[in-house]
Each structure stands twice: as structure tokens, then as C-alpha cells.
Amino acid sequence: MSIDPLQLVYQYHHESKHHPERYAPGPGGLDWATQPDPFRVYEGAPALDLDLGADCQTLAFTAARAGMRLDPSPLDLMHIGVLLELSFGLSAWKSYGHSRWALRCNPSSGNLHPTECYLVTTDQLHLEAGVYHYVSRDHSLEQRALFEPKLQTGSPSNGLVLALSSIHWREAWKYGLRAYRYCQHDAGHALAAVGYAAAALGWRVVRLGWSDAELAAALGLDRAQDFDPAEREAPDLALWVGDEEAPQATLDALLTAPRRFAGVANRLSPDHLDWYGIETVHQACERPTIEPKTDEKAPPLPPILPIECTASAANLIRRRRSAVAFDGTTQLPAEHWFAMLDALLPRSVLPPHDTWNRRPLIHLVLFVHWVEGVDPGLYVLLRDEAAISRLRPSLRDDWSWERVSNAPAHFSLWRLVQADARAAARGLSCHQDIAADSCFAVAMLAEFDAALKDGPWHYRELFWECGLLGQILYLEAEAAGVRGTGIGCFFDDAVHDLLGIRDSRWQSLYHFTVGGPLEDLRLQTEPPYAHLDRTAA
Ligand SMILES: Cc1cc2nc3c(=O)[nH]c(=O)nc-3n(C[C@H](O)[C@H](O)[C@H](O)COP(=O)(O)O)c2cc1C
What we know:
Elements: H1 5-15, E1 42-43, E2 47-49, H2 61-65, H3 77-88, E3 90-96, E4 99-104, E5 115-121, E6 130-135, E7 140-147, E8 159-166, H4 168-175, H5 179-200, E9 204-207, H6 212-219, E10 234-242, H7 248-256, E11 259-261, E12 264-265, H8 276-284, H9 313-319, E13 332-333, H10 334-342, E14 362-368, E15 371-372, E16 377-382, H11 388-391, E17 402-403, E18 412-418, H12 422-428, E19 440-447, H13 448-453, H14 458-479, E20 483-487, H15 492-499, E21 506-515, E22 524-526
Parallel strand pairs: 13-15
Antiparallel strand pairs: 1-12, 2-7, 3-4, 3-22, 5-6, 5-8, 6-7, 7-11, 8-10, 9-10, 14-16, 14-19, 16-18, 17-18, 19-21, 20-21
Helix pairs in contact: 1-8, 3-5, 4-5, 5-14
Flavin mononucleotide is lined by residues 103-104, 107-111, 182, 185-186, 189, 321-322, 432, 434, 485-489.
């Protein structure tokens, strides 16, 4: 008898929880001999080098976050390269002793980077219609497939499909069962990274409703013969990126037209541990074709609160980093904090919310440590005021729920209790000091049961939405002169106990922290692409 996929999702969620006395099942130590190669390449697929052109993008971050767009950049190879450079390209190399590792514009749990990026395109200038895989180390596109017969779409295309997939093994190597969650977080960060990069180029991003099976076939991920069985890629999502809505005939052709594949995926590790629970939950979460729809519109919000920042969006994106430690003393001015929180509200026309455009299902619990003019304590920010009638009865009934009087009028920001929340934040985040030494830390609360009732695959989407919010916090923090760090390690039910959550209507799915960073002065930093000797266009 087959088990209900929804039940499998609940089972996975439960079993992948960390507890103070027992972490989720993991490998029990790092086996360096099987550390996965962070760079996938398709051996035998022709590669096409891209220019490094991000320096030429001038749109200010303040303008990008407010939804201002320059005229759309031409959809040529140079600007496609910029899109990829700003979303998935390298941002630096770090070294310490004999170890050397790359950082990228998109963050990743443990810097393991399970997310892979593909393009599916009609003929573009200097790019033949086909399927391409991006190699961030080389800033190149591998020609994974050409359409055969050649694609006839009639008119020149005004956009292309950018698709994401995950190699679960990369995360599972370090994190075991919980890795599936981190792959989804990373996909959410990646989605937002594409949203910001496209905005810098004046392009729009629309999520497509392609099913997992359709996407796997379109990208060649279903070709078992091209992959080591333990290193297969799971299809995540597909986006139309361009200057206008996608013509349906073009989309149909990109999805279904016959194509001839080239290349074989490189082997990432000489050996693997099997994490059956990950395969099981992934199958349970398989996404069918979804009719692209926009959820009912949230009440209109006033224009986003302005910030002061002189950096271009491109520069800010490339200097984003995770803080490894905080000073414990930096005070964040309240107006900076409010502007940061405002950027999390669902304005569907602003990047990266334009990549999402769904009813918000994630709300924030805030551990405020050092925000000028705001008492330390525990707060709730509802991204949709209507959620209060569902959240409040699920939490402890002795929280004070005082509206924050100096917050902007459109905020649904509530103080639960005034307190020094540092020990709680640290303790709940697997005892990590970064949750306590910051200006504020966040627990992202999902409307869990309600989302899953619409289909088990919404489990993945909840994590994607968390990742999207995390990416906003990363860039907003950089713009405010502080720094953020994602926190995937937290004690799930201990967070719920603190808040008074007794069932699965609400679940904490991701933590985040923002504060004054301390640099690790032992590390050497090198520029991202000095090894390529490729001049900027
Ligand atoms: C989903 C996710 C979870 C993370 N969890 C933690 C964490 O628990 N603790 C931590 O110190 N850093 C955490 N990080 C930060 C990563 O270690 C960091 O993104 C990675 O090392 C790459 O560095 P960069 O963000 O500076 O590019 C997390 C990042 C992401 C995206």
C-alpha cells in the first residue's frame, strides 16, 4: 500500500528537526575524501566564454529596490553574461592556509552550492537556440543541447527561460537528512538573486508553471545515463526573463521541441552516503503543472521607505557576504530597520517580489537586540495583516501584542514582550553567537498546514519564500552598512515552545541575523575572476 505523499512530507519535516538533545540524522562528521566538487561541468559539451560586464551596470540599488528600471538592456550574449554574473557568478576567492574556496553572488548553506542554473533559449545574438548550463567558475555556458530540427519560432524572442535545479548530494554530504530543506532555502535565495540581477538590467522575471517532469525533460535532467545515480539533479523552477511577457508559442517550443543533448555530468564525489529520506520527500513533493496564476491581490501598500546608499545594484550584489561574527555593539538606527522590514512586505511590482507574486505565507518573529529607539524584546511582523487572526490564537496567550507606535502606519509590527532576547536567540539557533551578537535576529514562521493542504509540493515553496526573504535581508543589510547571515541550524520545536506553538499550523522554517560584522582577518581575499584573464567588455 503506498503512503500518502502529504504524510511523507510531515514525516520528513518531523524527522529533519534539530533538538537541543538530538540533532537531525547526519553523517556524524565530515568525510573530506568525499567532499563534493562545487562546480558541475558537462564533459564533452562545447563551452562558450562570457564577458565580465557587471561593472558597466549603473542602476543604483536604491532605485532598483524601489522598482525603477532603466530601458531594458539588449538581450545579447554580453547582457546574458551580466545576468548570470550577478546572480550566480563568483564574488571572491577566500583562502586560509592550504584551503581556498570561492564565494558567489548567491549564498548557500555551508557554501556547498547545490543550485545549478540553465538557460533554454531561441536564437539570440551569438547564442544558438538550445539548452545551456552555466559554470560559475569559468563564467561560461556549456551547450547542453541544440534543438533538432532547428527551432522555428517566427519572431525574434524578447526573453529566455532561466531554470534552476538542485544537487541534493552536495548538501547531504555535510548536513544529512536536513539537507533537503537547505537545498530549498538556497533555491529561494537563487530565485531572488535572479530577480535583483534582472532588475539591474531592466528585465522582468515571471515564474512559469512547468511541472518537475516537464522541466527535467527540457533540461535533460531525466537522462539517467548522463549522471552518477547519487548525483542526479532535481528540477526546481523555471523563469521567463526578458523585457516583456513570454509569447506562449515560444514557451511551448522551448519546453517541448525535440533536442539533442551533449556531454556527461562530471563526477562530484568518489563515494556517497545514501539519504533515502531525501529521495522519499522529494518524490512526495513532486510538482505537477501549475496554471500560472496570481493569487488574490494583497491590500495596496504605500511606496517603499527610501534608504541612503550610493552603491549600484551590481556592486552591492557582488559585495554581499555572510557575516561570520558580529561585534555585539552596533546599534541599527530605527529608520534603517523599518526600511529593511518594509522591503520584506509583498509589493508584487518590486524586485525580487516580482518573481514570486503569491499570497505571503511567511511572517517574521524578531529578536531585537540593538535597534535605536526600539526596546529589546520579541516582536512579530506580519507580512499580511489579515494573518493576525490566525497567528495570535496559535501563540501563548500572555504575549502583550502591543503595536509598535513609532513604526510606519502600514506596518503590522507587534511587540510580544520587552526583554533581553539574546540568550534565547543564541540558544534556539544551535547556540550560534551570530544570533545574539547582532542588531536583530529573525525566525521565519510559515502557515504550514494551510500551505500543505494545497499540495505537498508547497513544502518546497515555503522554503523558497523564506530564501527569497533572506536574500532581501542580505542586500538590505549591505545597503544599510551592516551585514546578514542565514541560519539554517536552529532547534525547531524549542522555537515553537518559546512562542507557545503546539501544533503544525505554524512552523519556523528559517532563521536570519543582521548586525555589525567582525572580519576574520586570518582570511586572504582574491578577486573572483583573476584566473580567467578575460577583460571586462
Ligand atoms: C540557507 C542558509 C543557511 C545558512 N545557515 C548558516 C548557519 O546556520 N550558520 C552560519 O554561520 N552561516 C549560515 N549560512 C551562511 C553560509 O555559510 C554562507 O552563505 C556561505 O558560507 C557562503 O558565504 P557568503 O554568503 O559570504 O557567500 C547559511 C546560508 C544559507 C543560504
